[in-house]
Amino acid sequence: MSTPTSTKPQTVAVHAGSRLTGSKSQPVVPHIQMSAVSFFESSDELDEALDGKDYVYSRIAAPNAALLEEAVAALEGAEACVAYSSGMAALRAVFDAQRFQPGDTLVMPADGYGVTRLLFKNLAERTGARIEALLLSEPSAIERVRALRPRFVLAESITNPLLRVPDLAALSQVCREVGALLAVDATFPSPYGQRPCTLGVDYSIQSTTKWLNGHSDALGGTVSGTRERLAPLRAARLLNGDVLGPFEAWLTLRGVRTLPVRMKVHAENAAHVARRLAACPLLSRVHYPGLPDHPDHAVARRVLHGGFGGMVAFEIQGAGRPECFRFLEAVKLARAAPSLGDVGTLVMHAASASARRMTPEERRAAGIGESLIRVSVGLEDPDDIADDLIAAVSEAMNR
């Protein structure tokens, strides 16, 4: 039996990364290969394995991680993929591969994930590189990148937590014009909602902990791109040891199998919840790219597919941190947790969680206020989700 050649996401998700070469026996569900080291009867075969041509030591290559890499690359529409022990490890690997020199400029989103911002700030200080933080979804961002002529640009497909959507096709074009490499953290839409490599992006980064795994039971991260672009990352991983363990790889690949059907419902539920929230008088603003009044709605329709993702954010009218904390305690169906992508609905206070590592000045510049709540919409009945959120807002505001 040969591997299906279909590129349709439902088929790719079920079948990609399911067969290891070299055996006639192929289990329906891959085994978890726990051994960190293997031996060979032939010294020549051992020698070749130490060059990565077979599995001999899991820091060099491991079967479960290799299957996951194959599956994610297929979903991303990329030539290759490298898996890491976490999404942050994947981001660190991309940064290190650039070999920045003093005076180099790198651009990153001003309104993106706070921990990524802090990581890149710390790394840039060591290399002497200069960071320019831009609102990459703003129309002026393209000209700013053209004027800055950076070596490297990091974007987020959908920003965390304000859910802005940059035009990746236009950003890719200007990066090519100025000779910059473009990396995109595409975690929020998942490969079901966007395949950045098909839009001209050099590195597509996933925190597999989120939608790809889908069950909040395994950390991981991936970088996808061309084989040539990823070769230095793979070589560096061999030395740094940021490898994904077999259990985590196996659990994540299990999640990949249902990604399209899950993401379809997550997106449908999020759209329904966003519409319900938009009608709630206790909220001053609802952030969701699928709403017609979202500032990037037209862009989102062009660069996203399969819906507008499973994330919603909203601002509680007149709320500060105390009221938002009361909201977190008041939800009954949703769970207050600093992650996303689970089958169940998760909520968090953005300023104290995803933006916790940003300075107050950085949060103000990004537009992340104390009243902002981020929601990872789950697979429950969408009216149950909306009712729970609205009731918790009412209780938090004593109305």
TrEMBL record:
Keywords: Pyridoxal phosphate. This is Cys/Met metabolism PLP-dependent enzyme. Pfam families: Cys_Met_Meta_PP. The lineage of its organism: Bacteria, Pseudomonadati, Myxococcota, Myxococcia, Myxococcales. Coiled coil: none annotated. InterPro entries: Cys/Met-Metab_PyrdxlP-dep_enz, Cys_met_metab_PP, PyrdxlP-dep_Trfase, PyrdxlP-dep_Trfase_major, PyrdxlP-dep_Trfase_small. Belongs to the trans-sulfuration enzymes family. The modification N6-(pyridoxal phosphate)lysine is found at residue 210. One of its GO terms (molecular function) is pyridoxal phosphate binding. GO terms for cellular component: cytoplasm. Its cofactor is pyridoxal 5'-phosphate. GO terms for biological process: cysteine biosynthetic process via cystathionine; transsulfuration.
